[in-house]
Amino acid sequence: MRSYGQFCAMAKALDLVGDRWSLLIVRELLIRGPLRYTDLRQGLPGIATNLLAQRLEGLEKTGILRREYAPPPIATTLIDLTARGKELESVLFELGKWGAPLLAKPGNHDAFCGHWLALPAKHLLHDQTPDGPPVTLEIRSGGEPLSIEAAGGSVHFRIGPAKNPDLALSGTPLLMLGVLMGKREFASACKEGLKYEGDPNILRRLQPTA
Description:
By secondary structure, this protein is α+β, with helices and mostly antiparallel strands. The protein folds into two domains: 9-100, Orthogonal Bundle (Arc Repressor Mutant, subunit A), CATH 1.10.10.10; 114-206, Nonspecific Lipid-transfer Protein, Chain A. 38% of the residues lie in helices and 18% in strands. Strands 5-4-3-6-7 form a five-stranded mixed sheet. A two-stranded antiparallel sheet has the order 1-2.
């Protein structure tokens, strides 16, 4: 492991997670939980197989992730974060929050997976009507859908389609993220290509108040 060789907490942290792809591996495991190697790679478009293997080895040696054998019916090795690795969630959220303005001009060839919205949504969305009946929003973009449910004052997330969602959104990541976070007017987003099925008023229950 290469080291900056500095008596500085930031430098020491970057010694462990500063390599390219390391924090994105942590992102996948935070959002999706224990994963098989092949499933983990699917959430990291563009990474070479040998580089992923190297990063996993390094993160395992430093105690950020672990491998465990899951018995039948799974019967395979799963990769998961340790308690120490899960402590990086707030770090990744703040880093993503800092980088959010950079999404205003996405690259023409930028990859996108819908489940990547789960981490910012977890920290920013709230159930604004806790006494109301449960409602479910489905985000359809970038592979597997992301289901978001508001019920009893809490917001829950699940990767995969929802059963009879109250609202389903599909379109570009920029449009969906904008309306989800209350940064874009719903009507104008629809004029730019956002598609929906169901009741758009569901968004008001989830959107951040500030």
